[in-house]
């Protein structure tokens, strides 16, 4: 089946690209499922801050996806440039959260302030991997490659929260932000 998943996985370059693209997904899932809430609980942050943070992130991610990312593409930004923007934004999220555990910034404010760069992370890291795959995979294997990317994303949703919980239990509530 040349057009299916087996054909997509026969291309070594495509397998390397798919393998690399799974890491931002792992970090994104760790953050949204476990890191943020375990940090908030450990630091005594009111759960309403998590709700506000999720709402701010979702609203800004929609604006970013609809307006900002297309404008950057029109200005000549490549997929790689946008991926770097997403990863740099993730570093900013993690640094903001870490500062909330060091009393440089209140933990509640760290949760809220991290929403802004997290919106960039969410919009970029959800949109760019399929865009990269569509350019790397040949037309006969694109469906299989996208399916494999979705399989890896679903697998991340199973294992990333477990990994994150293990890091929190073994090292402390800031460990996931360092790992991300």
3D structure, described in words:
By secondary structure, this protein is mainly alpha-helical. It has eight helices and no strands. Helix 2 (12-43) runs antiparallel to helix 6 (115-136), helix 2 packs parallel to helix 7 and helix 6 runs antiparallel to helix 7 (142-170). It is globular.
Major sheet summary line = none
Secondary structure category: mainly alpha
Instruction: Give me the Rg, rounded.
Output: 17 Å
Distance between the termini: 37 Å
- Write the element-wise H/E pattern from the N-terminal end onward: HHHHHHHH
Short description:
It is built from eight helices and no strands. It is mainly alpha-helical and 180 residues long.
List keywords for this structure.
mainly alpha, 83% helix, 0% strand, globular
Question: Secondary-structure map with pairings?
Answer:
Elements: H1 5-9, H2 12-43, H3 47-74, H4 79-100, H5 107-113, H6 115-136, H7 142-170, H8 175-179
Helix pairs in contact: 2-4, 2-6, 2-7, 3-5, 3-6, 4-5, 4-6, 6-7
């Amino acid at each position: 089946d040349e057009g299916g998943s087996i054909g997509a996985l026969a291309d070594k370059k495509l397998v390397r690209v798919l393998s690399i693209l799974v890491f931002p997904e792992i970090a994104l899932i760790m953050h949204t499922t476990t890191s943020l809430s375990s940090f908030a609980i450990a630091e005594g942050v009111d759960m309403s801050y998590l709700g506000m943070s999720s709402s701010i992130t979702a609203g800004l991610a929609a604006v970013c996806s609809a307006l900002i990312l297309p404008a950057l593409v029109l200005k000549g930004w490549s997929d790689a440039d946008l991926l770097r923007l997403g990863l740099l934004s993730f570093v900013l999220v993690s640094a903001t959260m870490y500062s909330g555990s060091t009393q440089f910034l209140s933990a509640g404010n760290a949760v809220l302030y991290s929403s802004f760069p997290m919106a960039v992370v969410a919009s970029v890291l959800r949109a760019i991997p399929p865009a990269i795959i569509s350019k790397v995979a040949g037309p006969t294997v694109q469906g299989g490659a996208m399916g494999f990317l979705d399989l890896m994303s679903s697998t991340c949703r199973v294992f990333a929260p477990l990994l994150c919980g293990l890091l929190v239990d073994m090292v402390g509530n800031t460990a996931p932000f360092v790992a991300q």
